[in-house]
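Contributing: when you submit paired examples, paste them exactly as shown. First protein:
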Amino acid sequence: MSPASSPRPKPRRRPLWWLLAAGGLLGCLGQVWLGLRGPRALEQWPETPGWQPWQVLAPGVEYARANLSAPRRLKCHAVRIDLHHPALELVVNAQSDEPNGWIRARFPSSLLRQLHAVAAINATPFSPEAIWPGTLVSPAGLAASAGREWSPKLQNLDALVQRADGRIEFLQGSQSVAGASLGVGGFLMTLRGGTNIGETVPQDASTTVGVSADGRWMFWLTVDGGQRAYSEGATPRETAEIQRGLGAHDVLNLDGGSSSTLVTGTGWFGAEVRNRPRHPAYSGLQRPVANVLAVRVKRSDR
């Protein structure tokens, strides 16, 4: 048989195990990048209800979590920040270049990486609800960063601002935002001057920010909700009491529900989702948000 008429060699097929391994690796990388939480059954929580010890994320920034049984089954995640620590600064992501005050919603983990932050929480309410990153949304309340207010405070909603001298203030009603270096809007205060003024409805996932009486400590708290047999959610009045237990004297209820997310700069790709967000596609996938309140270590070249 001449070389010209010799049969062609059959293409070599890659073994099935190779394809499965490659698919598994890509899936794992995608899961890590998206901050996707694994199945709830694989989570390990102490059998005894209560808060676990604080873990240091960076000097002046600590994280803790709690598996509570009262007022009902709750999974809670908290960050404690020393506002007097000279190496730390609070930051809020800037507005995008979209016209008319719109912004493209992004995962909290993406915003944390962009800001080079140690930790971040979702902040200002917005509409419409975003399912995937890139959705155009409009903040419903204050959003200010680097001294620039790019979404105004609403008169019927409260807000948190940081003044140029570093002081944290909670604004209610028509109180002025002028002179704030950064700020985020929320719904209403739930703890004011140590008095619980939180509403008794709704019972849902929540994100709150609190400050101690002396103004030194800031507390972030997320309570997962709407997940039966895991974490059923809490009311604003109940989250105010949890914040009081952490040491807060004044507390603001930020955006909640399926937006509630607490992210830290740990894990692969520099971000780890600590709580279990309630995404409609999968319980444990983040929802894109309009902005975050974050804390980072100062850098001289920034």
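Second protein:
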Amino acid sequence: MSGVLIGFVYLFGTLFLILLGIMLNSIKIIYQYERGVKFRLGKYVGTLKPGLNFVIPLLETMRKVDMRIKTIDIPTQEVMTSDNVPVKVNGVVYFKVKDPVKATIEIQDYTYAVSQYAQTALRDVVGGVELDEVLEKREQIGEKIGKIVDVETDSWGIDIEAIRMQDIELPAEMKRAMAAQAEAERERRAIIIKSEGEKNAAENLTYAAKKLASSPAGSGIMLRTLQTVSDIAADPSEKIVILLPTQFGELSKLLTETVKGKGK
């Protein structure tokens, strides 16, 4: 009797553990950023929301889908622009799943599919524009690529948030040519600025000469001369010699007194 009892206890314990394992396996916890796509005998029957969910073992299965924004890199692509310049371009794609059912049923691996389609779109768009446009309108080109990829991936339940171009690598010969062009442009601007300064200075000197010449009896020129002499005489080591006609004796006397006064 004791052996039979032990056998029943062992059998009951085994069945209990099996049932407990089945019950635990039927409990599924879904995080807030996830959704669960449930299948019953291989057929889609519903989408499970975050929280505690139950799945019938052996009859039902569930696949979790991450709804957060994902980031994938676009590997470096060598592209020939429309003006026949080879460039190497890479980028990054930001996307998220907006329909977990389509992302599970319509496409096998949506991450790989988005990456491949983004590479193709990048080559097509960059190959259709000139080099200057690639360098100056990177954001606009990225937006154009994003729209192309978004239209295609919409049927997969994928929403493209943005596509950004990162690095643009040019041939060494093109870099040298662009550097020479930039240097020539800077020199051109410097010459223009210098010539404009000389033009303004000439105009100001002409205006000043006219004003001095228009003063009565040349008094303006005399005052300017005296001011120049006064500025030079401020340094005791400087000596000034002024030659004037004899008829300007009064002016000569005035200049001499001014120089002596400054020398003291």
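If you have annotations for the second protein, write them as plain sentences, like these:
Residues 2-65 form one domain.
The mean pLDDT is 79.
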